[in-house]
Amino acid sequence: MGAKLDDSKPIFIQIAEEVESGILDDTFPEGSRVPSTNEFAAHYQINPATAAKGINLLVDEGILYKKRGIGMFVSEGAKKQVTDKRKTQFYESFIVPLMNEAAKLDISPVELETMIKKGGRES
């Protein structure tokens, strides 16, 4: 399992995001079993109900499914679903504020594209 948990967002969200990241990087390929809520709880020393809340978010979204008595598994099409979800989040969290700030600074789309292509490298 991944990095340590932090205080920047709820733990159950971090658990869900860790599973999503594992799906994106093929740690958890489609059809594979993901760690149980008890495994997450033991690893992070958290309440199993908190871990379950994060896993159940992904079940509700159709990213994971439950095999009774066996565990949670990655749904077919989950990687595309997570990718689409993360792209939307990226757009809302980064692109919209970027475009709003560019408009305030009177940065043209062409100038903004040049800045992006430059990639933050000094000239």
What is the overall silhouette?
elongated
Q: Largest beta sheet, briefly?
A: 2 strands, antiparallel
* Largest beta sheet: strand ordering: 1-2
Instruction: Indicate the proportion of strand residues.
Output: 5-15%
Taken in chain order, the helices and strands follow as HHHEEHH
Total beta-strand segments: 2
Q: Supply the helix-strand structural class.
A: mainly alpha
The parts where pLDDT drops under 50 for at least 5 residues are none
Number of domains: 2
* CATH H-level homologous superfamily name of the largest domain: Winged helix-like DNA-binding domain superfamily/Winged helix DNA-binding domain
Query: For the terminal residues, how far apart are their CA atoms?
Result: 40 Å
CATH class of the largest domain: Mainly Alpha
DSSP helix fraction: 55-70%
Q: Short summary of the structure?
A:
By secondary structure, the protein is mostly helical. It has helices at residues 11-24, 37-44, 48-60, 78-104, 109-118, and strands at residues 64-67, 71-74.
What layout of secondary structure does this protein have?
Blueprint lengths: L10 H14 L12 H8 L3 H13 L3 E4 L3 E4 L3 H27 L4 H10 L5
Antiparallel strand pairs: 1-2
Helix pairs in contact: 1-3, 1-4, 2-3
Describe the protein.
The structure is a single chain. By secondary structure, the protein is mainly alpha-helical. The chain has 2 domains: 11-77, Arc Repressor Mutant, subunit A (Orthogonal Bundle); 79-118. 59% of the residues lie in helices and 7% in strands. The protein contains 5 helices and 2 strands; from the N terminus they run αααββαα. It has a two-stranded antiparallel sheet. Strand 1 and strand 2 form a beta hairpin. The longest helix has 27 residues, at 78-104. It is elongated, with a radius of gyration of 19 Å. It holds the Pfam family GntR. InterPro entries: Tscrpt_reg_HTH_GntR (IPR000524), WH-like_DNA-bd_sf (IPR036388), WH_DNA-bd_sf (IPR036390). This is GntR family transcriptional regulator.
